[in-house]
């Protein structure tokens, strides 16, 4: 049997053995108080050293075959990157809170890109006078060691409960600094091989093309996947398979076909899936997907770290005192470079309001947490594998990169946890402490009640129940004594916490409706995005910012204005009708969700945060519900038949969900078999297919019909109505839209077919409804507009141009007389209208329900 045939089972056995070791390292690391990555590196070095000794020793040849697997790994540096990097990056983006990370986007970009450039320059320039090699070689080493590895750092953060923002900053940095370091590494490697000095222009073009192209390609890949996921909504294994294929396809296409950054492409695709994916699959399916990816990432991150560590003895060749001196230069220059960015550039960005401030303890921990790992070792291995590179440069890169990785793991990795404790970053905030006391008190009270009920129900002695209850009673007394500190926490902070809790619950309710298929994917996506923005606003500015985000959620998107323009100028109604239908469905679900949130505030928030906070939270939710209902009723008044159809469609989906739950319950209780269940479930699927199609919304913008509705033309013969309708142009207006502005030239008169408007002139406000005319005074007098006119509800208007207006009056003296009468009446109303109504609310604010007059 040849060696290749022998090596295959040995390789499989070696990987299986490594997985066993990796599994045992996890509990061992916790017992020793070390980060798993640190222990993985130590064990990997030990395996690599043992394998090297066994392979080369003359004392025995019994272990040569298995030792050869570790000494001459079948994977080169390119293979390691291609195999492990895509899935590691993709899994990180799936679990990262992207919306929260976006708040620190400037900080993350600075640490991921600027810090890499600064570290490369500092290390390269510091080494050049002492290394005896070219500046390009020194800069190449700088780019290799510039990329950080968050695995060990984040593991320490999670182990001791460090602030979530600190973990987000470190993870966000690591997502993109690999791309920056690899792009810079490729540029410098080409310069070293071809003996060329890269210009700043070359570097800028490479970075721009690499990053921009990677973002575009990753976004396209992510969008393709989110459109495929609903097709396999019922098949969790197929969803996992699609998600597993995506990062590899995106990475390979980006790196080897498009010539852009595969790292950026994979990260971008992962962000798209992170933001949109939860609404494209069921919540249970999304949880399953994340669980599988956690397992995949655990294997990948552990194996790449272990394999890279096994290579360390191979890379550390004949280390001397000179190498130790150069390593000291690398350590100091890397630390100084990171310090310049953290303590110099970030505060400057905060002063310029480019980014949120980062506290000194955070910056210090990030400075000390710049550990290097598998990517650095893999890039160094790539240099040693390239026969075109000078052997002296190969040894220089291998020794210093490997030594620096070992230094960061063994020094930074073992001292980071005590540093975090020194700054108290592992301690709960005063608000969290108060919350902890109340949560514990509530939970312990329920446990005591449950123990008492269980003892009574099972007929056990009260003395036994009292013995079990005693520790809980003592803990409850201790927590009650310590809860006094929480009384000093302001209601403002408690309200902020309550709003964060309520937005999390709102997200869960929306996902539940999506899982139960009572809403469409699009509606759920929109509401989930809005809920995320409300939660972010509450975190950033409490109650004020939350209310501002609520008002913004009820305002009209720019697409609505564009659709109105298309309807008005291009006679294209379909887009506007679809947007209005979407708005009704979104508002309907929002109202249903708010009803559930009001119950949640009373039942769950009040026991945790107190009656006063629950009362304020209920008040906020009631105002939000009132604004939502007002916006919903405005649409319902305009399109009552369509609203009834959508309500009926929602209830039909609820009925189908109840029917399906009933069949599943019977199946779970073994009251029916799989064959009968499949037959019954088929009716549910067919019903869902019928309920899935939304009825079309007819805007009712037919000019003939609108003219016929106007009382002014009601008694005219059909031929005359037809002639007038040919002069009219339909226009649709949404609540809050300004139709006429004071001071502008009057070029049209407006006839209200349906809806209501408000005329504001000199602090006076007059409401007009169906059949009324406005804008005619400027046409009759030739003077500029004397008032602002805003739509109170959804309005169907008919516009008549100046020339057509005068032609119409000339042809019909009776109509001219009526128009003159209406103009005199309007002038009198403007002069005598009361001023106490106040100005109408701006766009996006709560609108008064439109009232036809």
Give a verbal description of the structure.
By secondary structure, this protein is mostly helical. The chain has 5 domains: 77-422, Na+/H+ antiporter like fold; 430-489; 492-639, no CATH class; 648-696; 703-832, Jelly Rolls (Sandwich). Helix content is 75%, strand content 4%. It has 32 helices and 8 strands. The strands form 2 sheets. A 4-stranded antiparallel β-sheet has the order 1-8-3-6. Strand 4 and strand 5 (764-768) form a beta hairpin. The longest helix is centred in the last third of the chain and has 36 residues, at 574-609.
Reported for the largest beta sheet, the result is: 4 strands, antiparallel
Query: Which structural class should the secondary elements be placed in?
Result: mainly alpha
Strand arrangement across the biggest beta sheet: 1-8-3-6
> Which CATH top level class of the largest domain fits?
Mainly Alpha
Number of beta-strand segments: 8
Helix content: over 70%
Distance between the termini: 96 Å
Subunit organisation of the chains: single chain
Morphology: globular
What is the CATH architecture descriptor of the largest domain?
Up-down Bundle
Mean pLDDT across all amino acids = 80
Residue share in β-strands? under 5%
Please state the CA-atom Rg, rounded to the nearest Å.
35 Å
Number of helices: 32
CATH topology group of the largest domain: Na+/H+ antiporter like fold
Uncertain regions spanning at least 5 consecutive residues = 1-6, 836-853
Number of domains: 5
